[in-house]
Write a structure and sequence with these properties.
The protein has 76 residues and is mainly beta. The chain has one domain (8-71): Ubiquitin-like (UB roll) (Roll). It contains 1 helix and 5 strands. The chain has one helix spanning 32-38; strands spanning 12-18, 22-27, 46-50, 53-54, 66-71. The chain has a 5-stranded mixed sheet with strand order 2-1-5-3-4, with no helix packed on it. The protein is elongated and about 50 Å long. The model has no long low-confidence stretch (mean pLDDT 92).
């Protein structure tokens, strides 16, 4: 039997999706590209920002990060 208190919990990150203003947590992807894929956002359709700095698709996402994903394409 697995003790629920000892069950593994993957590291989380917090994402602020703009312009919707929706904030949520999810298990940490390893890279910005994996984050965009998890959100079903294609590369180039959003700016990914951590602590005021832009992140490229190959940058590592760290446990506990607060990431802003700002969509930059027209939605219609």
């Amino acid at each position: 039997m697995i003790d629920a208190a000892k069950a593994y919990t993957p590291p989380q990150i917090t994402v602020l999706l703009q312009p919707e203003g929706r904030e949520f947590s999810l298990p940490r992807p390893k890279t910005v590209l994996q984050l965009l894929n998890a959100l079903n956002i294609r590369l180039g359709a959003a700016l990914v920002i951590r602590e005021g700095g832009l992140l490229t698709h190959d940058r590592q996402v760290l446990p506990g990060d607060h990431i802003t994903v700002r969509l930059v394409t027209s939605s219609g």
